[in-house]
Specification:
The chain has 2 helices and 25 strands. By secondary structure, it is mainly β. The chain folds into 2 domains: 172 residues, Lipoxygenase-1, CATH 2.60.60.30; 193 residues, Lipoxygenase-1 (Sandwich). The two termini are 36 Å apart.
Length: 396
């Protein structure tokens, strides 16, 4: 997977058929966008028949509009560009977009990708986050350079809309595709999903959760003393303290842990794209233990294992009646309950997030582990799931 490009940056692409695709998040109040391609000659003018939008091909069929797809909470419009077949007179293939009844500043999650047409593997990505009053937008372009092709992240907006964009390229505004109006309604929010032993997994993308924040909450009911079926005695114990955490493995191979122990709280704005909130000792539904995953970086995750350990106050998880809820910013919540603990376990693997065909898949684990005599709860978890980290004692 290619890294995210900055505005104005460029990168080579293979001289082969590719797809140029604009993505955004739809929803109530979000203006609807419509895309087209401009085929620009060496003199900076648009070639005859050089506006490709809707179902209008260009001579030879080198560029065509493949239409719109809606997956979860994301909309995408796609152009298929057969680079070897692009006429020699064409120097640039520019992806443009227009909106009606609004501006691009009100269109969230706006980005453009280049993928190979054969396998749809990502070759380049540009995420635009600085639009304001523009109603026409040049997202990116494919251009010739020294016998090959490159992609440039353009990100140029026009507050004057289609008329200003057309004038800049010597076009009649009537040749550009008309933006759709009114905006397309957002799809209905999927119903909540409860994971069970019989149905333990669900695709977040199919539930509409492809971007934004994913909040993971653990809440429980503290059992009456003595705590823990396997406690050796009923002596007074410290208040019950459970710690939520996550083992992560990123797409680049980076591995680590987010947990209160050692103050490894993570970060949402940079790797590992996971953050743990402050420590809670009540288990209340409104509070409990909370962890957040940045789904805007879904492609940066290979796997994430959410877990809970007993820091103090109990010998095991028996009688806690714990519930796990994964609540995405967009899409349906996913919830499940833990089974009753019947082993002397101080650590439980809660949920495993892995990459599936459509994005991240959540699998209910609810797996209690019993560390060896000289093993920590985290090490037992690592060994059970083959993470391969080196563990040292820590405090919080």
């Amino acid at each position: 997977m290619a890294g995210v490009m900055s505005k104005g940056a460029n990168t080579p692409v293979p001289q082969a058929p590719v797809r140029l695709r604009l993505h955004w998040r739809h929803g109530a109040g979000v203006p609807d966008a419509r895309t087209a391609a401009l085929l620009v000659t060496e003199d900076g003018r648009v070639a005859p028949d050089g506006v490709v939008g809707g179902d209008r091909p260009v001579p030879g069929g080198a560029v065509r509009h493949e239409g719109r797809t809606v997956t979860g909470g994301r909309t995408a419009e796609t152009l298929h560009v057969d680079l070897p077949a692009v006429p020699d007179r064409v120097e640039r293939v520019v992806l443009l977009a227009l909106v009606a009844d609004g501006t691009f500043g009100a269109v969230p999650g706006l980005d453009v990708t280049v993928t190979d047409a054969a396998g749809d593997h990502e070759l380049a990505r540009y995420e635009s986050r600085d639009t304001t009053t523009e109603t026409a937008f040049l997202a990116g372009e494919l251009y010739r350079r020294q016998g090959g092709w490159k992609f440039r992240a353009v990100g140029q907006g026009y507050a004057g809309g289609a008329a200003e964009l057309a004038a800049a390229h010597g076009l009649s505004p009537g040749l550009l595709p008309a933006p759709r109006t009114p905006a397309a309604p957002a799809p209905a929010r999927p119903a909540a999903v409860t994971l069970t032993k019989a149905a333990p997994s669900v695709s977040l993308a199919k539930q509409g959760a492809t971007t934004g924040a994913l909040h993971v909450n653990l809440n429980w009911q503290a059992p009456p003393a003595p705590r823990g079926r396997f406690a050796r005695n009923a002596a007074p114990q410290a208040p019950l303290d459970l710690d939520l955490g996550a083992l992560y493995e990123l797409a680049d191979g980076t591995k680590g842990v987010v947990q209160a122990l050692g103050n490894a709280f993570g970060d949402l704005g940079r790797p590992p794209w996971i953050h743990l909130d402050g420590d809670d000792r009540t288990g209340a539904v409104a509070a409990g233990e909370n962890l957040t995953v940045n789904l805007d970086h879904t492609r940066d995750f290979r796997r994430v294992l959410v877990f809970v350990t007993i820091y103090e106050g109990a010998a095991d998880f028996s009688g806690l009646h714990a519930t796990v809820t994964l609540r995405p910013q967009y899409g349906a919540p996913v919830t499940f309950s833990l089974d009753e603990c019947d082993v002397p376990s101080p650590v439980c693997a809660l949920a495993l997030l892995t990459q599936g065909p459509d994005g991240l898949v959540v699998r209910r684990e609810a797996r209690y582990l019993v560390p060896g005599r000289r093993s920590s709860p985290q090490r037992a978890l690592d060994e059970a799931y083959g993470w391969g980290l080196r563990w040292t004692p820590g405090r919080k």
